Amino acid sequence: MKKLFLLLFLQYVSVFAFAQYSLNGVVTGNGETLVGASVVIEDTFYGVPTDSDGRFEFKNMKSGDYTLRVSFIGYETQKLTVVLDKTQEVNIVLQPYAVMTDEIIVSATRVNSRSPFSYSNISKSEITRRNMGNDIPYLLQLSPSFVSTSDAGIGVGYTSFRIRGTDMNRINVTVNGIPLNDAESHGTWFVDLPDLASSLDNVQIQRGVGTSTNGAAAFGATINLQTNTLREDAYAEYNSAFGSFNTFRNSVLVGSGLINEKFTFDTRLSQVSSDGFIDRAFSDLKSFFVSGGYYTDNTIMKVNVFSGLEKTYQSWNGIPSVRLNNDLAGMQRYEDHGLYTSEETRNMINSNSRTYNYYTYENQIDYYQQDHYQLHFSHKFNTNLNLNIAGYYTRGSGYYENFKAKRDFAKFRLEYPVIGNDTIFRTNLVNQKWLVNDFYGFTYALNHSKQKTDFTFGGGWNTYDGDHFGKVIWAQYLGNVGTDNEWYRGNGLKKDFNIFTKLYYRLLKELNLFADLQYRHIDYKITGIDDDLRDITQQHVFNFFNPKFGISFQPEANRRAYISYAVANREPNRRNYIDANPTGKQPVHETLHNWELGYSYFSSQFTVNANLYYMNYKNQLVLTGQINDVGAPIMINVDKSYRAGFELQTGWKLSKSLQWNVNTTLSRNKINNFTEYVDNWDTWGQEAFNIGSTDLSFSPNLTGNSQIVFSPKKNIDISLFSSYIGRQFIDNTSNSDRMLNAYFVNNLKADYSFKTGWFDEITLHLMVNNLLNEQYESNAWVYSYYLGDERFKQDGYFPQAGINFMIGVDFKF
Hints:
By secondary structure, the protein is mainly beta.
């Protein structure tokens, strides 16, 4: 029997060994070999670029029928079916595309398989699969090291995100290579552009410093969004969805296709609304996207105009932990210590512990409109040289309205009213804080590619001009004050210029060298007074040099290793400057030294990407508990801090109809020597505590995502999305009393498509979020103080909705 098993085993091994073949080939176009052409075997993880000789190779292939998809910028994508029953070599000739394609627009700020960086590409089909009207951070949640959160608890309205524990103010975001971050705050709020996902073609996330780009510094990651690309055929779509919390999403998309082989027009109108999970946290969001393009074989001229209008009820304060824990004595303490009025305390006690909203004023809203205008010009001089130029203008205008109780008239530059013989010093009032800004500039990139060398020379210039002002529109003893009653006004004028060069050099067939040098100049002027009537006039000038170097090694087509080193410098944002104590230490710029080491392997059924990173910060700005001269919290530069981690991405093609993708991040995020400051209400001073090495806030040591996609038939997809986020400290003290618990959330999505005589395709969607009804909080804040020699805290946690659903239908004409 043992001999029989041994014989069968040897036969199996021999059959397996001799059933492995290689598939080789050369890709040419216009009579020459094409370097860097993409060769993908469909329905597998196999995909390689052609080498300096235009060659590609797939090893260890099983016998069978395969479909190759071959693409290259400026050429028509070709599909080729190969029956592999022996080692074969195929010659693939690509035909020049009748017109240039849009990939060239973002090529200067994107990375590819030869780049020594950690990155993820998210295709249009993946975005569409997840899109049910949620904000973009929720659509990117399955990316490695990514954590999203929502103020209203359902991913509609105000959302934010972190990558590798780094907040969105340190993450560079561009749309078609044009900066999206607010130049002063450095933040990105996708609520201003609702349903932008419906106009996206693809997204690339570069983790760490990444390659040089335009706009805000990349201190944790870069998110590069590309909007709609050329669609040759005319189309029309209507997408509608509704679900829990009266959430509705409606969008209409219409495109002309290619007219006279030169012109295209695309339009989208969207509306998203929801009551939100949190009390009164409604959202009323509207947007449009219009694009017109002129295409020839060597030139693209494209205009994009898109806009968003958001009206949301504020849910920014979170829920106190005493309310979450049903701690009646703790809630009463809020009143006893003067944190809440008696009315506010009663409202908290009588509310639901997971949906309580501090705000009750009827019009406690945020109202903002943002308009974007982009003009892109791309020209190909020859097969090796092309130029991209883009000009842009962004206009933002809006306010958030607040009810304030028992405020001093003088702090709002209002005269004390006299009623009879009594002078009134305090009043209830309603104010609006306005931001009106203009952001304009241009970007450019000259790209040259030939055989062993790819070279890019690019950069950009922009100016931001933002007016910050506040109005009192009503006061209890004055009635309607009038729209011209400003109590503060300030301006931020920021000019940003950068220039960079990037070089890929193929030293050997298997070895690529990369160098990227960027110079950035910033001139930032702040003038006027802030809402506390302090003069905040100041000016800051920076000159940053940001070098990046790397090596990638590809011994075989399906294996790649890389190492890179990059430097990034980041200037403080507006709040860092205006909140700083005038008599204390002023904020200085931060510096990041980033090392990345990675390895990837793929076969037809399996893929793995592993990445080690070390991000060493100098003068990182963090909250320490210190306050300024008027009691507002300020961010302080800490000398040394770091983030180190291991990112692992794997994918299995378990069968023709079943695929499982998993990623996980293990990390360590530390401040080397941290001192905490806590207010002492007894002495009107602060207590200092040197804690030593502590964890950086909001930096989980473990995150993981899973995506299982089951397609039993061509027109049916069932997907299970799972995310695990480890515990996070909400300040920098590593104290478990101030912490977000770990959570594990599962979402189920089912799609069914069919054709009818009236429509090209109808797709039905069902999305069940938080399938297991996990009760969790994804974000929080905390303020600590001493009173009577005892430490207390005021905090706010942001619970997310339990099990909820969305049902949708798409009609394609």
